[in-house]
Design a protein that fits this description.
The protein has 15 helices and 41 strands. With 847 residues, it is an alpha/beta fold. Among the domains are: 2-17 and 549-590, no CATH class; 25-203, Ribonuclease Inhibitor (Leucine-rich repeat, LRR (right-handed beta-alpha superhelix), Alpha-Beta Horseshoe); 430-538, Alpha-Beta Plaits; 606-715, Phosphorylase Kinase, domain 1 (2-Layer Sandwich).
Amino acid sequence: MAAIQLLICLLFCSTPALLVNSLTDAGDVAALQSLKGSWENSPPNWESNDPCGNQWDGVGCSDSRVTSLGFSSMNLKGTLSGAIGGLSELRSLDLSFNPDLTGPLTARIGDLKKLNILILAGCSFTGSVPDEIGNLAQLTLLALNANNFSGNIPPSLGKLTQLDWLDLSDNQIRGSLPVSTDSQPGLDLLLKAEHFHFNKNQLSGNISEQLFNSSMVLKHILLDGNQINGNIPESITLLPNLQVLRLDRNKLSGPVPAKLNSLTKLGELYLANNALNGAVPDLTGMTALNYVDLSNNNFDPSEPPNWFSTVDSLTTLVMENGNLQGSIPAKLFSFPELQQVKLKGNLLNGSLDLGNIISQQLQLIDLQDNQISSVNLDPSGYSNPLILVGNPVCSNLSTKSFCQLQQPMKTTPYSTSLAKNCKPCPPNRRISPASCDCVFPYDGNLIFKAPSFRDVTNASLFNALERSLWLKLGLGPGSVSLDSPHFDKDDYLDVRLAIYPYSGKKYFSRVDTAGFGLHLSKQTFKPPKEFGPYLFYPFPYGFEGTGGTKLGIGVIVGITVGTFILLLALAGVAIYAIRQKKRAEQAIELSKPFASWAPSGKDSGGAPILKGARWFSFDELKKCTNNFSDTNEIGSGGYGKVYRGILTGQEIAIKRAQQGSMQGAHEFKTEIELLSRVHHNNLVGLVGFCFEQGEQMLVYEFMPNGTLRESLSATQPIEKGKYIVREVRMVMNKTDEHHYGLSEIMDPSIKNVGHLIGFASFLELAMRCVKETAAERPTMGDCVREIETILQNDGVGTDSAASSATDFGTSKGVPRHPYNESLPRKEIIDSESFEYSGSISATIEPK
């Protein structure tokens, strides 16, 4: 009894030491505790005194020091206190998309001298941008957009000579763009910056000629939606890499620089809604130009310029109220990428001739309020909206469709296809595109500031955007949806984005949403180049168990002492539990074959590792088979039906599983990986697969000579393909140690290689795999294990043999089977996700 009392006494006396013996630097602990005290809704696991040792959500550490804070989309509420300056080893700070973070930005932010990334986008900070940010000499990304900052742009930002991305957009910042003088730095010193995003502020004054120079590498200049006046500086034509220029919705005047067409990489040019005058700018030779808007300026009256007939890369031409007169060259309408022509409110006259060749992508021609007197239109050449209301031609032809202001669109905006025959979800939940599960998605508005297209119905473009999202975010097919794409009043493309939990999960964790927010605010996600620069504004996310009570320090002490005693008494049980947990995690991961994607090519238990095959969307295969029509059916069986289709000019055969015959997701993934690796002249090749909307489909090369059975009957000495197995069994001879009695029917390229390692064992396994009934056939897992055993028993597992069997291993160490999924999948976002990589300037540019 005395011994027990002594043990308890020792435990209680040692408890304070246990509580303060933290892996985290004491100064960092104090700073984080102070920050936590100024915030509401902090994550539940922020109750310990050891942020690094207990892995606080969003806190990244290295050698006991806090090096990154990633709190994106965590619903934090409060202010950012000066305590942040105490985290002297901090490299990355991301507080984005916490709209209830308010108040001024503390000047102590300038104490974080090692900071490389500062992202405060989508909060509600007020006051001026602190001058002290200019002290962050290692900063490469500064995103303060979508706040309530006012005051001027600090000239001290010119000291951030390593800066690649500067985004101050969507605030209330006033004044002019600062340039350097003898006494202060300026933005003209940012020679490594690729992005100047200052749109949607209250900037005024002139743009200095000094702001731009030929040593700068700027790609995006976004100044739209301000009150800037004066001329467009000639120096802007010196930027060799410029791709996007938005100067619209300002008060600019004077002529457009004559050498603007020297910007040969420029893809999007927005000069609308200013007071520009002089000649219409000459854009001849700008072969990368997609979008042009010169509307609502004071250009001199002129005929349509020559480049209306030469810049055939155009997708959109907008020049409303531009003093154009004369006739439109028919050549314009033949540009292959052209989608919209909007020339409303000009003085265009004569006869409108669209020519004999009209772009198949052309969706809208708006020529309202001109002087056009007649129309030469081939009814078969163009059937989309043509608007001529307010032209003389409509005085006598008012009943014609082109004389009606409202014309119905023939198609609807793109929307991701959802799983079929799903029941409605309860409020606040949505149906996952890949299944009928009702889950809580992470969603918001994805806004593209300068897209190169105007067709919001283009399924291939939006499918590409979906794929790039789930690849970059480490998810899988059906994990994201896009909905309601439209252009807003500022000519931005607004798309509703939703990201769905996977593998049976209903909610995302705080670590998950912080990771998604970091990818989308840090710009490591690169959309297809047609979409251009973007912003993401997520909606607040309701985490599972939100609103739980917090534990007091007394409760924490009691739990700690009790846990310590329990560990002393039940150490063996704890070790057993840990082992069982790892086994359970591995078993769970084996049931999540499509839960994540491994871009590096390593099999992390995620999407299939393919060799020459690709993923197809359900809509793609549905379209190329005419909705799986009976006329395209070329075969059927117990598995399902086979359809013929044509995709990108290639004939394909689509094997579609019927309900009741589909495999589990893991087995389907394994089959895809295996088939993608098998290539032989006598075997039909796998082109790809579809795994969404409750469908399992395999896409093969089309066989023009009929079915596989018919082809085998024609090319092999065996009379019919269905008898191949029986014939092989009849000629098998186990006493033939080299060829097992199959010498006469073997492919010479196999037979002539000499001794075939493990041939007999492989043949025996193959014959069991083609037994008549499923109960007699081994499972895929049994096959894999038996193949591994054969390889080891017959010497293939040695270094010398493994070097010639690269699909089963490497020449270094024990070979790893390509279908082995025993390794646990790494979480999509862990604490290391917030570690500074030192490569931000090379990865943040959206192409």
